């Protein structure tokens, strides 16, 4: 989750907002998931790729964009995370101020809109294992999960500065939908390319296949 | 200090150079007149000048989408304090 935004950008999604809190970004991401406050994919929405030796070989989350607040953390979620981390009112306030600078005051800004309901987020493959098709496996698994749940399209975003991710998504059937530069995010975010992919319909006559929350390969 | 409609109107116009006429009922964010990314400073301004602390959960369109709604919200927060 942390690596997904770190790659190509050099900082995680919440790093700037965490600057004055003293909380390690990984601990924050963990709290986000354990508090059930990750608005861009809860624990059960992550598909995890495991190598034969059981080591972690990649992961990707997903969420549905048919909700009013499309930020990675809602105000309600923030209260849960802040409580879990035991933040003082001042620390919580400092975080939230910095956070809304990057993600807006409200969660329905057009910058946050997605071109499909099913959105893949936080896709990452460990650096030493990149270039082996792991991202494609994760994307195909999510495509299958989306299709099994009745979706005809899936969306994903590539942060500006992460050319390998963008190239991978284009190779895997996604097409560019929109480019949103840093000026659309108050300069607090490097900008993103939104991509969308049409899903082939599931073959007829078969019972819908539902992937378990965790997938191994 | 008590924030007035004129204070808020002046702040928004100064910060964003909005051309449109803004009155108390003008919907600012939901209509796209103002991009919420560009007006994060509104929160600090309201807190500093209005003498209140805004809870993150209170930052909703129903409380902040117009100058009238902001003033009504401030009235409620001040009355509860």
Radius of gyration of chain B: 12 Å
Q: Please count the beta strands of chain A (DSSP E, at least 2 residues each).
A: 6
* Assembly type: heterodimer
Mean pLDDT of chain A: 88
Whole-number radius of gyration of chain A?
A: 17 Å
Give the N-to-C terminal Cα separation of chain B.
Answer: 15 Å
C-alpha end-to-end distance of chain A: 19 Å
Instruction: State the helix count of chain B.
Output: 4
Largest interface: A-B, 19 and 19 residues
Describe the structure.
The complex is a heterodimer of chains A (217) and B (81). Chain A is an alpha+beta fold. Chain A has a single domain (2-216), classed as Aminopeptidase (3-Layer(aba) Sandwich), CATH 3.40.630. Helices cover 32% and strands 18% of the residues of chain A. In chain A, strands 1-2-3-4-6-5 form a 6-stranded mixed sheet. Chain A is globular. By secondary structure, chain B is an all-alpha fold. Chain B is globular.
Give the helix/strand layout:
The complex is a heterodimer of chains A (217) and B (81).
Chain A: H1 2-6, H2 15-18, H3 25-34, E1 47-50, E2 56-64, H4 75-85, H5 89-103, E3 118-124, H6 134-148, E4 153-159, H7 163-171, E5 175-180, E6 192-198
Parallel strand pairs in A: 3-4
Antiparallel strand pairs in A: 1-2, 2-3, 4-6, 5-6
Chain B: H1 5-16, H2 41-50, H3 61-64, H4 67-80
Summarize the structure.
Chain A is of the alpha+beta class. Chain A contains seven helices and six strands.
Question: Keyphrases for this structure?
Answer:
heterodimer; A: 217 residues; alpha+beta; Aminopeptidase; 32% helix; globular; B: mainly alpha
């Amino acid at each position: 989750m942390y690596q997904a935004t770190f790659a190509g950008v050099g900082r995680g999604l919440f790093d700037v907002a965490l600057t004055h809190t003293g909380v390690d970004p990984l601990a924050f991401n963990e709290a986000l998931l354990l508090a059930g406050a990750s608005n861009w994919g809860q624990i059960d929405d992550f598909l995890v790729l495991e190598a034969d030796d059981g080591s972690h070989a990649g992961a990707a989350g997903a969420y549905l964009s048919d909700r009013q607040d499309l930020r990675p953390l809602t105000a309600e979620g923030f209260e849960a995370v802040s409580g879990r981390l035991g933040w003082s009112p001042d620390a919580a306030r400092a975080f939230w101020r910095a956070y809304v600078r990057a993600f807006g005051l409200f969660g329905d800004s057009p910058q946050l809109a997605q071109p499909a309901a099913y959105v893949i987020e936080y896709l990452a493959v460990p650096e030493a294992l990149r270039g082996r098709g792991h991202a494609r496996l994760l994307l195909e698994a999510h495509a299958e999960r989306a299709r099994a749940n009745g979706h005809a399209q899936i969306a994903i975003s590539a942060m500006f500065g992460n050319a390998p991710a963008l190239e991978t998504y284009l190779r895997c059937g996604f097409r560019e939908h929109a480019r949103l530069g840093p000026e659309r995010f108050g300069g607090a975010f490097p900008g993103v390319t939104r991509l969308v992919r049409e899903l082939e319909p599931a073959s007829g006559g078969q019972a819908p296949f539902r992937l378990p929350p965790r997938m191994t390969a | 200090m008590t924030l007035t409609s004129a204070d808020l109107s002046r702040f928004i116009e100064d910060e964003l150079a909005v051309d449109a006429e803004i009155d108390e009922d003008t919907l600012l964010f939901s209509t796209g007149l103002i991009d919420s990314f560009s007006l994060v400073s509104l929160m600090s301004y309201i807190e500093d000048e209005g003498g209140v602390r805004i809870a993150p959960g209170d930052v909703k369109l129903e409380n902040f989408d117009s100058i009238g709604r902001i003033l009504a919200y401030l009235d409620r927060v001040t009355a509860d304090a």
